[in-house]
Amino acid sequence: MEEISIGEFARRSRLSLKALRLYDELGVLVPSRVDQASGYRYYDTAQLDEARLVVMLRQLQLPLAAIRELLACDPADAATRIAEHWRDAEAAHDARRDLAGYLVSRLRGEKRPVMYEVATREMPERSLLCLKRNVDEQGMWAFGKEFIAILRERPLPKIEGREGAFFCIYWGQVSADSDGPVEWCRPVPATQAHALAEHYPGLTLRTEPAHREAFVALPVGPGGISAVHFQLAVESLQAWAREQGIEDERLTLKPEDLGLRITHLATGPVTGTSVPDNYCDLAVPFAVER
Fold it and tell me: How many CB atoms within 10 Å of residue 62?
């Protein structure tokens, strides 16, 4: 194979020197040789195909970390990963289109049907072991894994059904700009709550009052719940509340008192609609004056 300078490689690959240096630092496209005296980078001409592949993958908006992993795969596995990425991208595009349509109709004053079917359920008073923290969208996944890892160290008694499922409360907006806070919760038997809490000094024990929840099933892709689907679900719940005539003055407990939450179950469904095994739902909790 012919060895060429970084300048010539940049010319042939149509990648800038800045991009090539970045790809080297991140392990995406590493030079075949770096001169020890000058630090100058050299590439094999065989790497031009790899460089062109990186360019095309970036056009598909793959993150550089994902591209680095993909380049290390065999071709069949790489093809599967690209197909999965594009499937996720198309689903996200469809969701954004739905959200755009909803916003256009709303701003024009047109009545638009809600995007998700809303159901309700009654939830009893529960004892909860919780972990609360301010995290943005990048830290959200790691925070959830941390909570689950804590629980796996010492398994808790299982409470069957929806009442025993772990859930995550969004006390504030979680995005690139906003950091919640967020609280992960795991229901535990009330009679054992204080004894169990002693084994989890990093978690907080609290009691959540009985309430009603309006909820919608959320689609869960390989990358989790998309922010767009989350927002559409929130709009569906708010539209449902308006249609039901549920106003703050009628509530003894408001949604902001209990927190918007996503509840996770290993299996579904709960409303008669078929959903994936990694079922979860978004719920707005409240209590109406009787």
Answer: 20
